[in-house]
């Protein structure tokens, strides 16, 4: 039981780090005009509220790292990041009125979301690898 709680804590903390990386990656894509260049209307403003929400949800999403995946940390980070990306594209953003895949924000919105989630997932997986997990 103690080992499970320890792993749970590591995964939540790594997920928080991944959420921070996701938030900063998405902000940087908007700030530097990458999303505008792709025709996607996503350019978040960097604020405490913006970061806090993504860090907490990143911690919750980090719990997917409890799944037994021991091959490549890079592949683990990318493929497990597709779970929160799918939740965003198929559930959360459509609930906000952006349609399935949030295509009302631009045709390449799914690409931007998958890239941002991959940044966070790979960062979290790398942190877990550095911790020996």
UniProtKB/TrEMBL annotation:
It comes from the Bacteria. The chain crosses the membrane at residues 7-29, 49-67, 74-95, 107-128. Keywords: Membrane, Transmembrane, Transmembrane helix. This is Uncharacterized protein. The lineage of its organism: Bacteria, Pseudomonadati, Pseudomonadota, Gammaproteobacteria, Cellvibrionales.
């Amino acid at each position: 039981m103690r080992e499970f709680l320890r792993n749970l804590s590591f995964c939540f903390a790594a997920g928080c780090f991944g959420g921070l990386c996701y938030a900063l990656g998405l902000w940087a894509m908007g700030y530097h005009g990458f999303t505008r260049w792709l025709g996607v209307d996503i350019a978040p403003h960097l604020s405490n509220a913006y970061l806090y929400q993504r860090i907490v949800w990143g911690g919750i999403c980090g719990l997917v790292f409890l799944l037994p995946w021991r091959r490549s940390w890079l592949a683990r980070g990318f493929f497990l990041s597709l779970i929160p990306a799918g939740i965003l594209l198929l559930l959360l953003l459509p609930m906000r009125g952006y349609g399935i895949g949030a295509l009302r924000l631009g045709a390449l919105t799914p690409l931007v979301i998958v890239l941002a989630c991959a940044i966070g997932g790979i960062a979290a997986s790398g942190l877990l690898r550095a911790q020996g997990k």
